[in-house]
Amino acid sequence: MGDVRSPIRPIWSRPRTEVGRIVRLRPPLELRIRPLRTGLATSHRSSYTVGAEMPAVQVAIIVLLVGVGAAMFYGLARLLRHASETARAAETRPPPKPPPSEPTGEVQADGLVYLFAHDFIREPAPGRRVHARRQAFAPVTGEEVDPRDLAEQIVFATLVDLLDEGYIEFRPTECEPTFMPPFPQKRWTLLVHRRRELPSFPLADVLGCAFDLIEQRLRKRGDPAPYFIALDEIIEQSVKAMRQELSFWQRAGVYGDIRSYIESALVAQGYLVMPPRETWLERLRSARPAMAEGVSDLLRDRAADLRTRLEAFRKAHGNPPPEGPLPDQHPRTLHDVDPAIIDTDLPPEEMPLYDCLRVALCEALVCLRQLEPGDDTGGL
User: If you average pLDDT over every residue of the chain, what do you get?
Assistant: First the structure.
């Protein structure tokens, strides 16, 4: 029996209306694969964009490296040019003035204490570390001495010398306690008056500057003369004047600044000789000056005379040295001063001048030291 299903007719043999319906229901193959082509095109564009960005990043890095290299080359060229100009200037600059072949000028109490520190100053306290920049050494023996004791003795000997010569006078007076270290309960202060212009030598010069500055301020304020000024104020202004003459590398705290100021003056006079510093490394290292040849023999008698005068001043204007052990908080530099003077009830006119001067000077320098940074700040 034959197949009753109608045979499939080709599309060209069908009616036009039927052909249109088939086209509308089943879109052509080209239309059906268009989204796929669109996706492929989008993917290709994305990969092309990433590939285009990579060369831009590489170009930026190259430009940056070239710029850094050019800057380094320019800086190196300037450095070499500056070094060349400095070398040419050094060749044309006149040679530095050599130190005097023989010492010139007189050495007063400040210089004598420094040069013969081994006779005036004790060794540092055992077990106490001193920073290398603050260490002090005796020029004659090369032994280490207490830097604080050296600074106090330099100023003390100068003030006693000026007092003996009639340039200044001291007057203790009552005051309210400051409740500040090192002597919080001290109820007196020491005033100093300049009777006439001070002589010209290193420490006297800065003391004179301090007197000029403070007296000028008192005159502008309308205070009547004579002017009696607290010793600690004079010492503070004197240290400020010293520091204006010192370089950064010479500064080493208040005790070191006093020592460096006197040291520089002695070098300029030819009593001390600095070691040569020919290389750059030698300029960075700290160097100690040595005593010039023949200076020890030249000034030994004057140093002995200064020690005699200081001892005579102590006997004439001081209490007998304390007997027995001293209190732990008593400053080591005041080993020959009775601790009772610090909070004494004596009237000012009966207070021993030697003890007052030693205590007031110690207090002034310690207060300045406490304002400075360091491993031993505030130590007595």
Answer: 78
